[in-house]
Amino acid sequence: MDIVPHNIKQLRKYPNSEDIIPYGKHFIDEEDIQAVVNTLRSNNLTQGPLIEEFENAISQYVGSKYAVAVSSCTAGLHIACKSLDINSDSIVAVPTNSFVSTANCASFLGARIKFFDIDLDSLNISIDQVEEYLLCGNHLDLVIAVHFAGFPVELERLYFLSSKYGFKIIEDAAHALGSEQSNGRRIGSCDFSDLSVFSLHPVKSIAAGEGGVITTNDEEIYMSLLRLRSHGINKGSDELVNKEYAFTGDNKNLWYYEMRELGFHYRITDIQCALALSQLKKLNKFTARRNEIACYYRKKIESINFINPAQKESASFTSNHIFPVRIDFDALNIKRNDLMIYLRENLVYTQVHYIPIPIHPYYKKMGYEAKDFKNSMLYFKEALTLPLFYQLKNNQVDDVLEMLKTFFKKV
Ligand SMILES: *Cc1c(COP(=O)(O)O)cnc(C)c1O
């Protein structure tokens, strides 16, 4: 027997997907479809020329020396940590307000996670608290900074601390393809970090189906990433160890390879890169429209006193990956879930970004406590992500806000 919560029973199970207004959504056109079809007709479904072509296009777009495309952002974060030699002796700083991957990537390697609370203006990691922690004589090996909703972390300040206290920086840039740093260059340039990692999941800036891409300016890290995404097998100019098998006379044997370290199978395919390349051409158009929608929301919300944008406006350009708002549900004496069900009945699918990572059962049982993350818990209690995606029309924004007002009048 299906166990359906009583209050969800009345929801239509399979509404017409075109009628649904989700919180986020990809946009695919005929050019994208043709690009994938062309790949299906070519000789390479995977490990062909499109992977490098996509990597070069991303490097050029963000202004990094190197890019390595992988099977997901989570996979990318994992090998990014591994390339910095994060291990069971490491202490890794992670913001509470993120998707679980941000912490898991270091947990995979046995590192200890030190969670940091967020700054309520940006909803990003509180750099004040990181600094205070370091000033008290504590050590960090790595900080993973998340540009929440695309809002750029103050990287220059974090970078200054990293050179003073000797830790590495990885940007979890899953939300931030298209965002700019305060120096006017794009997130992913790694001007102030060791590596950046993007997601190509359909809900993010551009879609590859699933996929991720890592950028860096460090050649050694780059070579290490190439090995780690493919079983730890040697690449390019890596020196070969077993010379007696590797060579016939002075010639390297055509069939020969060596596994140098314990790597993974985190490769992406040409099919995915065909789509990602085609999508990348539209990225500036996507972010421009997202920016318009976010501005429209902000203007409209000004006159609705129970809804506030969850983040202040960014000084630099942002990808506006999502549009989170804050609603003081307790003061209004309503339940967030009741509101979400009401919106769903009207085919508007909202979400909560995020459940603070340390309160997930896996992390909670390690001893992390909600009371140590006051800002995260406050924001979490009031958080709701409203729809924002390229094809969303202004009149649909109006509809969503009218639905919210109607609901608030009813209760
Ligand atoms: C989506 C997301 C990820 C994971 O991306 P995948 O490509 O699905 O692995 C990691 N971090 C953040 C902040 C995300 O939003």
Briefly characterize the structure.
The protein is α/β, with parallel strands linked by helices. It is built from 15 helices and twelve strands. It has helices at residues 30-40, 49-62, 73-83, 101-107, 127-135, 155-165, 219-228, 243-246, 270-280, 283-301, 329-332, 336-345, 361-364, 374-382, 394-410, and strands at 66-70, 91-95, 112-116, 142-146, 168-172, 195-199, 212-216, 247-248, 251-252, 308-309, 323-326, 383-386.
Description of the molecule:
By secondary structure, the protein is of the alpha/beta class. It contains 15 helices and twelve strands. The chain has helices spanning 30-40, 49-62, 73-83, 101-107, 127-135, 155-165, 219-228, 243-246, 270-280, 283-301, 329-332, 336-345, 361-364, 374-382, 394-410; strands spanning 66-70, 91-95, 112-116, 142-146, 168-172, 195-199, 212-216, 247-248, 251-252, 308-309, 323-326, 383-386. The strands form three sheets. The protein has a seven-stranded mixed sheet, sandwiched between helices. The chain has a three-stranded antiparallel sheet with strand order 10-11-12. Strands 8-9 form a two-stranded antiparallel ribbon. Strand 8 (247-248) and strand 9 (251-252) form a beta hairpin. Helix 1 (30-40) packs antiparallel against helix 9 (270-280), helix 3 (73-83) crosses helix 7 and helix 10 (283-301) packs parallel to helix 15 (394-410). The longest helix is centred in the C-terminal third of the chain and has 19 residues, at 283-301. The chain is globular, with a radius of gyration of 23 Å. The chain starts with 29 loop residues before the first helix and ends with a helix. Residues 1-10 have low confidence and may be disordered. Bound molecules: pyridoxal-5'-phosphate. Pyridoxal-5'-phosphate is lined by residues 72-74, 98-99, 101-102, 146, 172, 174-175, 199, 201, 212.
